[in-house]
Amino acid sequence: MTFSHEIIEAIERALTEEIGDFTYDEASGIFDIEIDEDDEELYASQFILVRGDAAIFYTVYNYAVPVERIGAVADFLMRANQGLYNGNFELDFQNEVVMYKSYIPCYTPPDKQAIVDCVNLARNLIIYYSDALVDVINGKPPAIAVTEAESEEEAE
After folding, report:
1. Angstrom distance (rounded) from CA 142 to CA 122
2. What range defines the domain where residue 67 resides?
3. Are strands 44-51 and 30-33 parallel, antiparallel or unpaired?
4. Per-residue pLDDT tens for 112-147?
């Protein structure tokens, strides 16, 4: 599979200058972004896929959703997605993990700030909703968990 050299260079430059450690796998077109292991708020992994004329940003919450809670988590994610402008939460039914996905169309090489914003947005939204997600996994009703998570942010 071929990937735009200009897109890859733009992402490499932005990650090097603004984000930190990462690796790039040429064969798959995947950037794997290292997350600080000292960050106790985030039990996740981040990567960017370059596909044709798009850069797709993922943050995967590395906590498997128990099969019996998949319906409640799907409800929670639908509610959390309400009003998001750039990207959305998804539930991978094969691996039972939650991820946040956004993308940048790359008809020209992407702007450095757009790349940095997508990386940070995905990371920050996983952090923002992670406690509420764990609450839903542990039995809290999705509507209450989302309302509480969003209320806490407004209070700060």
Report:
1. 21
2. 5-155
3. antiparallel
4. 999 999 998 888 888 888 889 999 999 999 999 999
What are the distances in angstroms from CA 116 to CA 57, 102, 155?
10, 12, 27
Q: Is 139 left (phi over 0), alpha (psi -120 to 50) or beta?
A: left
Which residues is 97 bridged to in the sheet?
92
CATH of the domain at 102: 3.30.1460.10
| 145: CB partners within 8 A, 6+ apart | 76, 132, 133, 135, 136
Structurally, the chain folds into a number of domains equal to 1
Nearest one of 129, 124, 153, 142 to 46, comparing CA atoms: 124
pTM score, two decimals? 0.84
Sign of the dihedral defined by the CA atoms of residues 145, 149, 86, 117, in that order = negative
Question: Could you give the CA distance from residue 34 to residue 56 in angstroms, rounded to a whole number?
Answer: 17
Query: At residue 132, what is the residue type?
Result: A
